[in-house]
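Hello again, I could really use a second opinion on something today. I've been staring at a protein lately and its backbone has me curious. Please have a think about how the structure follows from the sequence. I owe you a coffee for this, so here goes:
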Amino acid sequence: MKRERKRKKMYLNCHTYYSLRFGTFSEVALLELARENEITRLALTDINNTSACLNFVRRAADFGIHPILGIDFRNGVSSCFVGIARNNEGYRELNEFLSEHLHEEKKLPKRAPVFKHAYVIYPFEKVLLNDQYHFLDHEYIGISVTDLRRLPFSRLIEHKDKLVLLQPVTFRNKRDFNAHRLLRAIDNNVLLSKLPKEEEASFEERMFPVKNLAQVFSEYPFILQNTERLMQTCSIHFDFSKDRKPQNLSTYLDSKEADEKLLEELCNKGLPYRYPEVSKPIRERLSKELQLIRKRSLSPIS
């Protein structure tokens, strides 16, 4: 029974349609797919995006699944590494790192920063092409089903304690794959017939039945064991109860009055940007809307 239970926790790289112009189905559909395949632990790692994460965690219990959160960090379609949050603090670390690069439009580095509460998994192909990798305690090498055929002939087989199963899940079926190719053509602004193969994912990026995976990796049980140990240490919790304590700030500055004053200053400063000629009716309308905010005790700045 113990061995069978271990075989049900294997997917660390799953995408939804929040992997924009790449993924093809929702986070709920992903949970349904996992339940059909008897998966009990599952990591959502959309590409440079975490929009689906809260609902994924909220709905996971309905499907009997322990949710894990992460991010598939990529430059275009080229995967740099996958970050897996060990806990809520790790999830914050991953989001802050992603936000920094997206807001500043910075290219993602080949090596991840030293996260204190998150694991980093480098794709087999990337590690294979770089002899300079020195793995830290929280860093691993991801092996997919298609990578497995090359593993015995690679020097990476020596890193037995660092190898984990990183089988991407992007499609459920051929229809999803076809939709994905259309999205990639749109993203590249080319005809579908002109879409480069390197701009689309492999049809092998599917959730295979647990028994099939166990059989494929039967000669390398340590890969599944390493994956199991990693997933066992990951836990994410958000309070979705009705009586939960609000996490938003009650005020932006020291008081509500200070917030209202700052809002008024910002509005007056922005008026010339919106209106080349700031007339009396425009100022009166602004004053009326600010009064309405104060009257209804709305949070003016959040």
User: Anything to note?
Assistant: The longest helix spans residues 256-274. The mean pLDDT is 91. Residues 256-295 form one domain.
